[in-house]
Amino acid sequence: MRKLFIAAVAALTLSASAAQAAGGAYVPELKDVNWSFEGFFGQYDQKQLRRGFQIYNEVCSACHSLRLVAYRNLSALGFTEDEIKEIAAEKSIRLPHGDAGALLNDDGEFFTREAKPSDKFVSPFPNDAAAIDANGALPPDLSLVAKSRLGGPEYLYSFLMGYMDEVPEEVAHQKGFILNEDKSFNIYFPGYYTSMPPQMMDELVEYEDGTEATAVQHAEDIVAFLNWAAEPELDERKSLGLKVMLFLLVLTAMLYALKRKIWADVKH
């Protein structure tokens, strides 16, 4: 009870701090999604993770990096060794120099090699300056984004589905609000304006498994994949937790039976 009380106080404090940092800005309640990995018995849907990876690979990877995930980790999504090699080989890694120590090859280009399964996901830009120059702002790395945002997967889903063509009255009338027509309005984004335009739309990609390609489906799939990227051990951790609970229940029953046996002939 003491730990629960401390956790509750900490959560309320963080919520109050977040609201204060936002300056009392209007933020609607996050959208609720029934994730397959929620709850004590929740597990990742491997088919959904593969669809989410397809969205990242075909859409998100053009701007966002995934620096903490290696291509070989895709085996957890059901990809074979040959499929992973093929996926990795689509990307090139820039080398510092060639065999002779030259910085550029005969064509005046940087030396590169095909990515391998052991490599981390190749970033779309050579450095942060190039990323900012191409996007107007630095696209965040998505490796831990599902854990680093308050609200986790619910926030990511709400953000992806929170773009609006018009500013609602609750925001337009609040003190200090400034209209910015050069960026996209998102009701869930801190400050409301983001450099990333809306991404979720029907038929954004053509799913390989035949799933209906709606904007909602796309958003759920990519968020599930990003949650896996941030917490790939979730299934194993829950499985281990269940085994530990079962062991403790059996052990408790055995100890109780032993106690009854030892004290059976003792009069109370």
What does this structure look like?
Residues 1-21 form the signal peptide. The protein is mostly helical and 268 residues long. Helix content is 42%, strand content 4%. It has helices spanning 2-21, 46-58, 81-89, 128-135, 145-148, 152-160, 169-172, 215-230, 234-262, and strands spanning 92-94, 112-114, 184-185, 193-194. The chain is extended, with a radius of gyration of 25 Å. The protein starts with a helix and ends in a 6-residue tail after the last helix. Mean pLDDT is 88; it is low at 1-22.
Helix vs. strand class? mainly alpha
Number of helices: 9
Summed over residues and divided by their number, the pLDDT gives a mean of: 88
Point out poorly predicted stretches.
Answer: 1-22
The outline comes out as extended
Strand content: under 5%
Q: What does the radius of gyration come to? A: 25 Å
Main sheet attributes: strand count, strand direction, barrel closure: 2 strands, antiparallel
| Counted beta strands | 4
Helix percent reads 40-55%
Strand order of the largest sheet: 1-2
How is the quaternary structure best described? single chain
SSE ordering: HHHEEHHHHEEHH
| Spatial gap, N to C terminus | 33 Å
Summary keywords:
single chain; about 270 residues; mainly alpha; two-stranded antiparallel sheet; two-stranded antiparallel ribbon; 9 helices; 4 strands; about 5% strand; extended; disordered N terminus; transmembrane helix; electron transfer activity; Cyt_c1; Cyt_c-like_dom; heme binding
